[in-house]
Amino acid sequence: MSYRVKGNTGEWEVVIGLEVHAQVISKSKLFSGASTKFGADPNDQVSLVDAAMPGMLPVLNKQVVEQGIRTGLGLRAQINLKSVFERKNYFYADLPQGYQISQFLEPIVGKGNLTLDLEGGETRVVGIERMHLEQDAGKSIHDQHPTQSYIDLNRTGVALMEVVSDPDLRSPEEAGAYLRKMRSILRYLGTCDGNMDEGSMRADVNVSVRKPGDELGTRTETKNVNSIRYVMQAVEFEAKRQVKVLEDGGEIVQETRQFDPSNGSTRSLRSKEEAHDYRYFPDPDLLPLVLDPKWVEEIKASIPELPDEKKERFIKDFGLSSYDAGILVIDRDRADFYEEVTKGGDPKVAANWVTGDFFGALNKSGLTLAETPVSAKQLGGLIALIKDNTISGRTAKEVFEAMWETSKDADTIVEEKGLKQISDTGPIEAAIDEIMAANPSQVEAFRGGNEKLIGWFVGQTMKATGGKANPGMVNQLLKKKLAG
Ligand code: ADP
Ligand code: MG
Hints:
Blueprint: E1 5-7, E2 10-23, H1 62-74, E3 82-83, E4 85-89, E5 99-103, E6 112-117, E7 123-135, E8 139-141, E9 150-152, E10 159-165, H2 172-189, E11 201-210, E12 220-225, H3 228-247, E13 255-260, E14 265-271, E15 281-282, E16 289-290, H4 293-301, H5 307-318, H6 322-328, H7 332-341, H8 347-365, H9 376-387, H10 393-406, H11 410-417, H12 425-438, H13 440-447, H14 454-464, H15 471-482
Bound molecules: adenosine-5'-diphosphate and magnesium ion (MG).
């Protein structure tokens, strides 16, 4: 499944590394007690520390540190027992301190990795270089007034985790799979809500191209892309643009670019020569962060079963394909829902129902899993009825539709609608005898070699029994009787 960009001089390989900024779930900010709630009025959640009033001192939020450790453990990464907060100095209107407190030389989390779930159930492991904690900046608003800009500092000082991948991704699809998996893991851990449309997760997209086997090429970095689809578009656009520049005899300059969602293109913001020298230095207001290994162990013990382990268990215990298991573990609610459905028996049939009719119905009615009119227990009840031959798989679809409409249990509906499958041979044989007697020429044709007619007889028998005859039994009895 290799992805290549075709140029005039042959095929090019695309190399991608992502820097993901994820907002930490925490009631208050990284160094202040101000609230982090989304959707407040502008400047409603700004403490004196966030506004950088002279003499204010940052106080590290322990909950954020715990979330950072959880995330590191979830990314199978090294937790550094000593890390250091540094000042990254730059001027910007929405950065009142004149610097961002971040981690640079000594981040809290070191090397780890993440498993991509690719098309067709394939997987691939991608390296993670590091993760550090840092403050978010405020927001400048330029579209509310003809001549003035406004500043909203609510986001100033909110804790972010920056996760930096190795340059291991090789296609837009892999970049998308990386972000989906990252979001899934963070949500399982409860460390970031992953809502990209609220800005809780965004990515800087580093892209370069090379001829297969060559050294890494020069990369560009497209900043702050806020949807998975946009990241994939940015990769695709950049890769094609770079191939064209190189084949036309040009050079790629290392630069920062901006994504334009209106047409999926990127454009240059600033080149690396103009790049800031951030003059990083350890923040004199903050001591190095030293972790008690016992605390790290406690956090480790509280990490829930994560998607990769869950997937493995579903494959092993329930006999699911890697693909189905992958879909079912994407989020925890979904996985829990499925596990509840399996209590109806037959986990494979349960997986087909959940990923097929059930997700289809949710999608069609625009509902979330939490809003489902059919509970997991009820769906399990439906599957139990198929399993014990009370209804056929086909009738089950009708029952499911009625369940969706009424939220009633499967057996109630089967009872009310009289849908119980006929598995007694008596009534089925009687129906078959009648049909054969009424259609002697068809019987003759069948016996004369037109075996396809069996389908017609099945149809007639199902019709005569109101669709309730056990189809396996119908087939069996027909074959016997028609053979004469
Ligand atoms: P910086 O500090 O300038 O952002 P880093 O070395 O930390 O640079 O790299 C940032 C990101 O760029 C990482 O995700 C890394 O994987 C990616 N990256 C580095 N080199 C390349 C390259 N040649 N092509 C694509 N991505 C790259
Ligand atoms: Mg960078």
